[in-house]
Amino acid sequence: MKGTLWGIGIGPGDPELVTVKAARILGACRHVVAPSARTGEGSLALLIASPHLGPQAKVHEVEFPMTSDRALREARWQEAARLCLELLEEGDVAFPTLGDASLYSTWIYLARAVRSLDAQVRLECVPGVTSFCAAAARTGHVLAEEGQILTIVPAAGDEPLAIAEAVGRGSAVLMKVGRRIATVVQALDEAGALERSVLVSRASLPEERVVGDLSLLRDAQAEYLSVVLVEGVRP
Amino acid sequence: MKGTLWGIGIGPGDPELVTVKAARILGACRHVVAPSARTGEGSLALLIASPHLGPQAKVHEVEFPMTSDRALREARWQEAARLCLELLEEGDVAFPTLGDASLYSTWIYLARAVRSLDAQVRLECVPGVTSFCAAAARTGHVLAEEGQILTIVPAAGDEPLAIAEAVGRGSAVLMKVGRRIATVVQALDEAGALERSVLVSRASLPEERVVGDLSLLRDAQAEYLSVVLVEGVRP
Fold first, then answer.
1. pTM of the predicted model, to two decimals?
2. Which fold has domain B4-126?
3. Which one of A119, A144, A167, B95 is most buried, counting C-beta atoms within 10 A?
């Protein structure tokens, strides 16, 4: 009898923003497979999950390289999926992932790879607090109120148009702006939305940073884990 | 010295989907002010928060009528704000709200009303798990993956166009579809997105209901707390 593979959204960074359910499951799992962006850098997901792990937990870090090489990424997901299937022979396996597990997360790809290798495996998912909800809580920004459409724009190549359209129809969240922040600031400025925007880096982590005046970032780079919130014009 | 007013996102319904931080603060607050939609019906937010309250907590239910009468709603928010300011004289006050506190929540309006009465009051906000993250976790639907734009469309009058545009650009979440479900199903059908959609009512609550084939709902009504997830076409 195999164990269950748990995809666990562990929230934006503060270990207290893990749900009670996530904490319980992390505390009970036999194995923990944690994603890291680059070998040697350590896993932020694991750092957040750590205070909740039980004494029996064995930790396995797997590298998910940030690369546009699709074949390389696919190969790594398959590798991680095979590891999970092996570990499931010994009991439940937890896969903690930043923010929510169903939104721009490595869990999506891992779950797909596991399913492709074994259609019978038991997968369960625990939802988590997203970085933009944490950023809004921290700054008092409203993500969306009654009647407003909220657009979540991910890191992508076509952002100036996507940003202009998003802030034109309501409120917006721009994910992982990082190195593209100058482009983002220019797009927001041209859309007349700079004054209702705020940038939050590493929301809820000790090194959290809030920038209320985005024009200061015209020539800067932002931290990788940065999100911009753009309030809608009030209805 | 006044207490702090805490806006607390308590998640979609399952008391275990409250964050560790929310549980800690709910357990420590002197007063709890809980929103209910109609007097007599009881507060779902309070029901979820209850297992986490401390023995010292005094509960106050306030009615936020679901009405399009703006003046009536404003009056009720002002009334609730005055109550909170009074209670803050005795210590911290918690205001639990469904899902996340910054997204289509009563907290947004209460915080604004409190600020308008007292600019010095200490407001803090704890983010929560949204209903759509819980619905995605439950059904295995992907909210958005790399490069996809996610549009959150609230209950509003202009949804057929908003829905068509949203599913045309990526993935979508349609909030509180309730009585408008027939219109929603028709719009999704016309946009060719019915097959990648799922409806979840009261996600994570005991009476949760998942409808995978939305065409069954053409002539039906859905529960008030229902959300439709529409996956994007995979990039």
1. 0.95
2. Cobalt-precorrin-4 Transmethylase; domain 1 (3.40.1010)
3. B95
